[in-house]
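Exercise: predict the fold of this chain.
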Amino acid sequence: MLDFIMVPTVMAIICAGIYGLFELFVRRNERMAIIEKIGDKLDASAFEGKLGLPSYTKKYSFSSLKAGLLLAGIGLGLLVGFLININALPYNQFGNDWNMREVSGIVYGASVLFFGGLGLILSFIIEISMSKKKD
């Protein structure tokens, strides 16, 4: 059925792969040239006292907390939306199937947005309390 799309799609994938491979080698050569150019100008005294591991105890990154609580809120929202659809919306309540799907979509969307927002608010509260403890 979609035979007319297959040949251009395969050719586009092959051309993109070859282009990516050439670009990979060209970038590698450019990087090596830059490293060689910089290496000639620097000596070991430029790095005195500057090499070492950064201190991670002073800074907190809350991006993983935000992402985790957002995903937990979305998962909880999907679960609550499913439970609402199973328990509160009997299948014989609506005359046609379109209204049932519309109401189910609204319930799922609203519960996902609500609980996702609650997850972000919870991460904000945790960030505030952690920053107060730190100071």
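Check your answer against the key: The two ends are 66 Å apart (CA to CA).
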